[in-house]
Write a structure and sequence with these properties.
heterodimer; A: 389 residues; alpha/beta; Rossmann fold; five-stranded mixed sheet; 13 helices; B: 297 residues; nine-stranded mixed sheet; two-stranded antiparallel sheet; 11 strands; globular
Chain lengths: 389, 297
């Protein structure tokens, strides 16, 4: 029996997705427009025997999430721009120390305090490169209330599978929007368990995890007396710091990259609509993808061949899908609520094979279908058109 | 008084506190708790003495090592995580208490001990200290206070004494030193103590008292850094720095908190000990109450 349809908000769907994924710890700090996630989980976590704690700031929030995850409990935090900036150092820690956790960033206008109640996509590059140092990251972008739920579940599965922080990049529009959804029931979901390594404690070593077989992280306070550090560590010697051995540092750095990039095809997901015969493609993600879809449908009604490519995974960047698209279309329109952040990335993947038209705004207003339609018109010499509604 | 906070606040005179007995352990037994006896601490540094006192305390309390977790930050003190054989987390600078809060909340049955240096604890991590104390979460914070940033080569810290020199207080420190025990107490810590490596057994007892206490306990160990503090302040000999710990410490019973405070003297012993509702216990009551009411998933 599916759940009855309910009218819920994107932020509520994230919270319910976290519960469904088995998250039993939330540490956070109130910040618009993500606050509802904390409010819902303040009520829900104790109901399911999980832990909700309001920390003293976002730095403490992500630190507590790391502590809880290390103690064996699936954990998340939720924040927005300024808080996401404060979390960056520890996101790097989670990446280095291989701590599975989920960070939900409900994007708002920035920089700084910016436009607290308005949507933005200004954090997409911060999600990729916000913390210092070479690292890899996974980031998912929901574009509906249902996806707020399903991608939060998936974020936890990816975090567990690759022992890494995973970022869910929502925005003020998606977070506050309400849609009628029938949330999946537990038997409809695939949930990755935390588990223990299937190696006895006295034989276990970090190096037994390989790119193809990443073992679960043993919990603190278990028989596995693990050492966890943000320093460069030797995976073959109990994970103790090894800052004086360049080959160990190189090996760790490459392992941390490869354990995600080697699986890029399995991780990255892209939705393609009407792309079979498209001459022009719109590449859009998150809330903007909704406007892009409307513009694409409008274009099809006008009889011009426009398709939509919607990255669901933003990082690792879906290079293969872009590659494919670059061979097919003559123009790729990239509307986004920032100034060229992803269109640069698209251009790098396209390598001159198609024209990339960027369209950005940073006034806190959602990009409307008409704006994208205007760009489509230009690509199809609109002055020759007989426009239909 | 709310239904959740049903334990009355009991303030005890510090002299009434019964500290656990310390059974001194053989060096071989101490070494058995270490991954390696080699440390990067300088000759004359007293961090090793506090480490031994911590192990003596943990062994005397007969804690299960598999259920004991040490969380530390960055700095000389934080390196203890590499040496101890238990579950250890070497966090980002200043974040040890916040990480420990998450770990303890997720697994309240685990013994969580937090090791911090003075910079880690009350400079970069000061906000986490006051809130962990306010929550009265059942973790023990053990601070190695050497009054200087040793790992980075001898810069002043919030606990560098007024007038003392460092590479960033070249003409003498013009700022007042933090009394972190007073800060912890004011913020709500329910067990506050200070000791010195000079008085080894007493220090081990204070650490054990902190661990045995249910609630947020704060133990400050005054340690000496002859390499950076001593050299810059004309006390280059490690033994003289140890002697200075003795000269400056006054048993709390004799220390007149109300009277004019003598420069650089500090009270040692149990400075504060009260009982009040502990965070994870209060949280468990909320969960239990919801389950009784049948609020399921």
């Amino acid at each position: 029996m599916p759940e009855p349809r309910r009218l819920i908000q994107g932020n509520e769907a994230v919270a319910e997705g976290a519960i469904a994924a088995g998250a039993r710890f939330f540490g956070g700090y109130p910040i618009t427009p993500s606050t509802e996630i904390a409010e819902v989980l303040a009520r829900r976590m104790p109901q399911v025997g999980g832990h909700f704690i309001q920390m003293e700031d976002e730095i403490a929030s992500i630190a507590a999430v790391i502590g809880a995850s290390l103690a064996g409990v699936k954990s998340l935090t939720a924040t927005s721009g300024p808080g996401f900036s404060l979390m960056q150092e520890s996101i790097g820690y989670a990446s280095m120390a291989q701590v599975p956790c989920v960070i939900v960033d409900v994007m708002r206008g920035g920089p700084s305090t910016g436009l607290p109640t308005e949507p933005s996509q200004g954090d997409v590059m911060q999600a990729r490169w916000g913390t210092h140092g070479e690292h890899s990251i996974i980031a998912l972008v929901p574009s509906s209330v249902m996806e707020c739920f399903t991608l939060t579940v998936e974020a936890f599965n990816l975090a567990e599978a690759y022992r890494t922080p995973v970022i869910v990049l929502s925005d003020a529009t998606i977070g506050h929007m309400r849609e009628a959804v029938a949330l999946p029931t537990p038997d409809e979901l695939r949930i990755a368990p935390r588990g223990e390594p299937d190696v006895p404690p006295d034989e276990y070593d970090e190096v037994m995890s390989t790119v193809d077989n990443i073992l679960p992280r043993p919990a603190l306070g278990s028989r596995y007396a693990v050492h966890v550090t943000g320093l460069v560590y030797d995976r073959a010697r109990g994970g103790v710091p090894a800052t004086g051995t360049p080959s160990v540092a190189e090996g760790l750095g490459r392992y941390l990259r490869e354990k995600i990039y080697h699986h890029r095809d399995a991780i990255t997901r892209v939705e393609e609509i009407e792309m079979e015969d498209a001459e022009v493609a719109i590449l859009a993600y998150g809330s903007v993808a909704r406007s892009a879809r409307a513009a694409m449908k409008w274009a099809r009604r006008q009889g011009v061949k426009v398709g939509l490519v919607r990255p669901i995974t933003l990082w690792p960047f879906p290079t293969v899908a872009i590659d494919h698209m670059a061979e097919q279309v003559r123009t790729i329109i990239v509307p986004e609520m920032n100034l060229k952040q992803m269109s640069w990335e698209v251009m790098a993947a396209v390598r001159g094979r198609a024209k990339v038209v960027d369209h950005g705004r940073v006034d806190g207003k959602l990009i409307r279908p008409e704006e994208i339609q205007a760009l489509i018109k230009r690509e199809f010499h609109y002055h020759r058109w007989e426009e239909t509604a | 008084m709310s239904a959740l906070v049903d334990e009355p606040l009991v303030e005890r005179p510090p002299s009434d506190t019964k500290l656990p007995r310390i059974t001194p352990h053989e060096t071989a037994e101490i070494l058995a708790e270490l991954r390696t006896p080699k440390t990067l601490w300088c000759p004359g540094c007293s961090n090793g003495i506090v480490t031994r006192a911590l192990i003596d305390a943990v062994l005397s309390l007969e804690l299960d090592p598999a259920r004991t977790c040490v969380v530390a930050g960055i700095g000389c003190a934080g390196r203890i995580t590499t040496y101890l054989k238990w579950s250890t987390v070497h966090t980002a600078h200043g974040r040890a208490l916040a990480v420990a809060t998450g770990a303890k909340a997720a697994d309240p049955g685990m013994n969580v001990i937090v090791i911090m240096g003075d910079g880690d604890c009350i400079a970069i991590g000061g906000n986490h200290l006051i809130h962990a104390a306010r929550r009265n979460i059942d973790v023990t914070a053990l601070v190695f206070n050497n009054s200087i940033y040793g790992m980075t080569g001898g810069q002043m810290s919030p606990t560098t004494f007024e007038g003392d020199r460092s590479t960033t207080s070249v003409y003498g420190n013009i700022e007042q030193a933090f009394d972190m025990c007073e800060l912890a107490r004011a913020a709500g810590a329910t067990f506050v103590a200070r000791g010195t490596p000079y008085s080894y057994t007493r220090l081990a007892q204070l650490i054990a008292g902190g661990i045995a206490h249910k609630g947020f306990s704060f133990v400050e160990a005054m340690v000496s850094c002859p390499t950076y503090y001593g050299r810059q302040n004309s006390i280059p000999k490690a033994s003289d720095m140890m002697r200075r710990q003795y000269d400056r410490s006054v048993p709390v019973e004799k220390f007149d908190r109300e009277g004019p405070r003598l420069h650089d003297l500090y009270p040692v012993g149990v400075l504060h000990h009260v009982e009040r509702s502990e965070y994870t216990t209060a949280y468990a009551k909320v969960v239990a109450r919801l389950q009784e009411q049948g609020a399921g998933s």
